[in-house]
């Protein structure tokens, strides 16, 4: 896809250029530690540090109950603005 | 700068030695001679590091060391064994303690004396290491330290220790000389850190348990001073009492170059200033007679001493060394004395606190730090020439923009320094200026100038340095690549494709196919932003308005304009406004797609700043033509009873905040015929009924109607134009009349319907009386509804709704009041 759209100075020439297309858009970000974020991407840099707004954070926690069954619990948090350090970012996906 | 770092020209010192010491004159003359050269030596200079000075220290001058310190050869052996500092101290520590307790018991009220003693004991353990040692003439330091110990070691002044030796210690010059000769064999020992007493010395002067630690040298020097003071006619007893005071550091003025807060014993320690490297030559000149040798040593000690010693003698308060003496004083004087003492102790303590880290850094360290700072300064300002503002921006974008917004005035308009460098220098200047009272003002200025010059030189050097990142030495195989903090060495070297023309053309065909692809639109939005940023950046580099007489300036200005024009063209292309309009295409026009993204909407105000009127009207036309396919119009269509989704509401809000003002700004100045044309386009090209059911659609219509009204009011409309307008208006009115009741938000309590009333008002003003009548009939239900509804609302909200209705009612010459 990216190859098709080489036009002008903002042509896609490296992976992060694709992230640039999602600036100011809603993105889905998967983080280490079983966390996911969904929110508007305000800024990013070459380390994948992100600044996101109106973020919904989902944390997946595995819990063991008495009968040793594992259940997955999700914790959701709402953040107005979030800085994400790049080293925890696993993937960034545009959320159309 | 002078010998030993003290200002030897102090007038008060003169009084001390001119009678008894011809050598002081010599020294002073020398110092005065040196002063000119060394004046600015205290400025830490790049080139002028210590190594340079060290070269001047000729080792051959050590030849006279033996004369100076006695022949160390014979007494070498015992030296090592006798410096059991701790043991010696420990032996008498008990005695000290007992003495203290006894004293406290005896005079329990005298807390002041206690404080003083404490202050002194605190000062004692102060580390003497300054880092200079290895750079100094080996024979030179020890006696300096011996001197410092004179002040550092003396203790417990209030005790009657010094009374007995008083008479004994007033020695004539001959006596002193004799004594010195006698002990010349010991002088090598004396040269060592003096705290312990060499065993060979008979201790005739002090009862052993009272002054066990006082170094021999102490007994040598004071008589000199005493004699000098005697020459001034000061009663010896007073002098004696005064001399051994532990407060010695306090009452003396600090030498001029010394930063405030440095305790005297540090100053006395000649290590404090680099200038102390100067002495050797002078020493060389001195004949090796013991007494004469003493002169320079004394010199370094004396500046602190004399004036206040004399003053002390004139002090209305008697000098007190003996507590009993204190008791005998009248109450008033005693209080005054204690008060004075307390003050002094407090100050001493303060000085001590301030000076705790004095001497922690050697001049080398300071030089090193200064160099680092300068280097950063250069790195920060290095590429800065006025010729290259780009680099300045790249270096410190936010600061630059911030200071531009703030309009921060440049302090030195003609200096090609970065703001950072300027700030740095400015502050440094202030700091040094602040010391004006203590320092030689001229000196401080000089320092500032030198610093500035250095920075300037460094900056120039950095500019002159080739910018190559690699160095290939001829004949070698490898490359040496440089790196610094600003441009770290690249680990990977990946060539960016230089948007090669060939690649572009091959892809062009495909681009058309994916016109509506989301990613393509996003990409073109980024493209627009890139161009926008480039253009906004160009604004910063705008050359000053050209001078008629300066062809070069005109040339520059032309070039700049050319660049701006080409950027404008690029931006225009990126916007894709001119892409052909495909009628009935099921994909929106690229520009309309562009506007459907929030960031596309947000870009509009910035774009409007960069484009000319013609381009603006083109954009406006484009929007008007596609009014019904505009996302904010299309998605706002909803069935009755439905409230628009949050997304849509946000998009509409954003559009009315970001795009509408830009359009309005243009429309409010647009010529009448363009307004007529636009209205014609709305009628001909769009589904007016669809458009009018949306907030944005109504907004744009309102915009045009009110502009027409203003033109008419101002009488600027020509007859012909006006006819055309009325024609179009009638068509519009006829089209809208059937649905006038439906243009309102679905339910009456759905919130803001002001824009509808505004639109109706705009229609009403322009309408003929007959049309007004039809208008009232069409919306009268809604009017009544709203009026009734507003009565159920809280007063302020109700009056707001009524006000909205009245907007329309007044336009057609009515008022809600009339409705009862």
From TrEMBL, chain A:
Pfam families: LSM (PF01423). CDD domains: LSm3. One of its GO terms (cellular component) is U4/U6 x U5 tri-snRNP complex. It comes from the Eukaryota. One of its GO terms (biological process) is mRNA splicing, via spliceosome. Residues 14-96 form the Sm domain. Its main location: nucleus. Transmembrane segments: none annotated. Gene3D superfamilies: 2.30.30.100. Keywords: mRNA processing, mRNA splicing, Nucleus, Ribonucleoprotein, RNA-binding, Spliceosome. Binds specifically to the 3'-terminal U-tract of U6 snRNA. LSm subunits form a heteromer with a doughnut shape. Belongs to the snRNP Sm proteins family. This is LSM complex subunit LSM3. It comes from Aspergillus ruber (strain CBS 135680).
From TrEMBL, chain B:
Belongs to the PAT1 family. Residues 120-139, 272-317 are annotated as: Disordered. Residues 1-817 form the mRNA decay factor PAT1 domain. This is mRNA decay factor PAT1 domain-containing protein. GO terms for biological process: deadenylation-dependent decapping of nuclear-transcribed mRNA; P-body assembly. One of its GO terms (cellular component) is nucleus. The lineage of its organism: Eukaryota, Fungi, Dikarya, Ascomycota, Pezizomycotina. One of its GO terms (molecular function) is RNA binding. InterPro entries: Pat1-like, PAT1_dom. Residues 291-302 have a biased composition (Low complexity). Residues 125-137 have a biased composition (Basic and acidic residues). It holds the Pfam family PAT1. The keyword Amino-acid biosynthesis does not apply. It is found in: Cytoplasm, P-body; Nucleus. Residues 277-290 have a biased composition (Pro residues).
């Amino acid at each position: 896809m990216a190859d098709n759209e080489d036009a002008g100075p903002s042509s896609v020439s490296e992976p992060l250029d694709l992230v640039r297309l999602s600036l100011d858009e809603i993105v889905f970000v998967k983080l280490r530690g079983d966390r996911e974020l969904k929110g508007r991407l305000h800024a990013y840099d070459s380390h994948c540090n992100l600044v996101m707004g109106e973020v919904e954070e989902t944390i997946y926690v595995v819990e063991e109950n008495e009968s040793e069954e594992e259940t997955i619990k999700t914790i959701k948090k709402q953040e107005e603005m979030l800085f994400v350090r790049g080293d925890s970012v696993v993937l960034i996906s545009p959320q159309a | 700068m002078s010998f030993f770092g003290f200002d030897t020209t102090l007038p008060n010192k003169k009084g001390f030695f001119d009678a008894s010491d011809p050598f002081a004159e010599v020294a002073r003359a020398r110092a005065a001679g040196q002063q000119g050269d060394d004046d600015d030596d205290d400025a830490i200079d790049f080139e002028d590091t210590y190594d340079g000075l060290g070269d001047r220290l000729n080792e051959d001058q050590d030849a006279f060391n033996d004369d100076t310190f006695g022949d160390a050869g014979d007494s070498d052996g015992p030296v090592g064994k006798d410096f059991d500092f701790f043991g010696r101290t420990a032996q008498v520590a008990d005695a000290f303690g007992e003495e203290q307790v006894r004293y406290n018991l005896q005079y329990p009220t005298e807390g002041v004396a206690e404080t003083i003693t404490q202050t002194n004991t605190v000062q004692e353990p102060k580390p003497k290491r300054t880092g200079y040692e290895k750079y100094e003439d080996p024979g030179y330091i020890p006696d300096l330290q011996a001197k410092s110990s004179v002040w550092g070691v003396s203790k417990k002044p209030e005790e009657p220790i010094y009374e007995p030796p008083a008479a004994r210690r007033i020695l004539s010059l001959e006596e002193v000389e004799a004594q010195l000769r006698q002990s010349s064999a010991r002088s090598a020992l004396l040269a060592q850190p003096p705290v312990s007493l060499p065993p060979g010395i008979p201790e005739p002067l002090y009862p052993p348990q009272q002054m066990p630690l006082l170094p021999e040298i102490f007994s040598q020097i004071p008589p000199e001073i005493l004699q000098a003071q005697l020459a001034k006619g000061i009663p010896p007893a007073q002098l004696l009492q005064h001399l051994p005071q532990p407060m010695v550091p306090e009452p003396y003025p600090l030498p001029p170059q010394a930063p405030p807060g440095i305790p005297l014993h540090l100053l006395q320690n000649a290590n404090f200033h680099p200038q102390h490297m100067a002495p050797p030559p002078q020493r060389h000149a001195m004949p090796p007679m013991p007494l004469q040798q003493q002169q320079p040593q004394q010199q370094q000690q004396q500046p602190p001493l004399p004036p206040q010693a004399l003053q002390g003698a004139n002090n209305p308060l008697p000098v007190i060394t003996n507590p009993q003496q204190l008791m005998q004083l009248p109450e008033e004087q005693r209080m005054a004395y204690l008060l004075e003492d307390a003050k002094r102790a407090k100050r001493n303590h303060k000085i001590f606190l301030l000076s705790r880290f004095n001497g922690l850094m050697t001049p080398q360290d300071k030089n090193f730090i200064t160099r680092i700072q300068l280097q950063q300064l250069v790195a920060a300002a290095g590429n800065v020439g006025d010729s290259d503002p780009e680099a300045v921006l790249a270096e410190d974008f936010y600061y630059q923009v911030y200071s531009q917004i703030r309009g921060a005035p440049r302090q030195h308009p003609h200096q090609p320094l970065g703001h950072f460098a300027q700030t740095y220098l400015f502050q440094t200047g202030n700091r040094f200026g602040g010391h004006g009272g203590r320092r030689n003002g001229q000196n401080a200025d000089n320092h500032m100038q030198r610093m500035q010059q250095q920075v300037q030189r460094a900056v120039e050097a950095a500019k002159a340095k080739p910018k190559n990142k690699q160095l290939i030495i001829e004949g070698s195989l490898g490359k040496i690549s440089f790196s610094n903090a600003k441009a770290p060495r690249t680990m990977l070297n990946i060539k960016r494709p230089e948007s090669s023309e060939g690649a572009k053309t091959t892809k062009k065909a495909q681009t058309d196919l994916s016109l509506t692809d989301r990613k393509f639109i996003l990409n073109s939005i980024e493209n627009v932003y890139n161009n926008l940023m480039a253009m906004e950046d160009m604004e910063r580099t705008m050359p000053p308005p050209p001078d008629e007489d300066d062809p070069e300036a005109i040339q520059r200005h032309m070039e700049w304009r050319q660049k701006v024009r080409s950027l404008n063209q690029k931006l225009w292309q990126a916007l894709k406004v001119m892409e052909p309009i495909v009628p009935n295409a099921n994909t929106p026009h690229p520009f309309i797609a562009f506007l459907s993204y929030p960031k596309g909407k947000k870009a509009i105000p910035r774009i409007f700043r960069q484009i000319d009127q013609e381009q603006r009207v083109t954009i406006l036309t484009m929007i008007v033509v596609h009014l019904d396919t505009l996302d904010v119009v299309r998605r706002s269509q909803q069935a009755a009873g439905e409230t628009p989704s949050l997304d849509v509401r946000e998009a509409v809000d954003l559009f009315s905040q970001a795009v509408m003002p830009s359009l309005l700004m243009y429309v409010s100045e647009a010529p009448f015929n363009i307004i007529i044309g636009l209205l014609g386009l709305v009628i001909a090209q769009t589904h007016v009924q669809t458009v009018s059911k949306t907030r944005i659609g109504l907004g744009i219509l309102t915009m045009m109607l009110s502009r027409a009204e203003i033109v008419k009011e101002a009488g600027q409309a020509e007859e012909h134009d006006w006819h055309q307008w009325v024609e179009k208006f009638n068509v519009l009115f006829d089209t809208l009349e059937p649905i006038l009741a439906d243009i309102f938000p679905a339910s009456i309590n759905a919130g803001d319907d002001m824009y509808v009333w505004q639109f109706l008002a705009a229609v009403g003003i322009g309408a003929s009386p007959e049309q007004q009548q039809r208008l009232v009939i069409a919306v009268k239900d809604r009017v009544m509804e709203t009026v009734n509804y507003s009565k159920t609302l809280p007063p302020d909200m109700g009056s707001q709704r009524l006000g909205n209705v009245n907007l329309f009612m007044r336009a057609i010459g009515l008022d809600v009041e009339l409705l009862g």
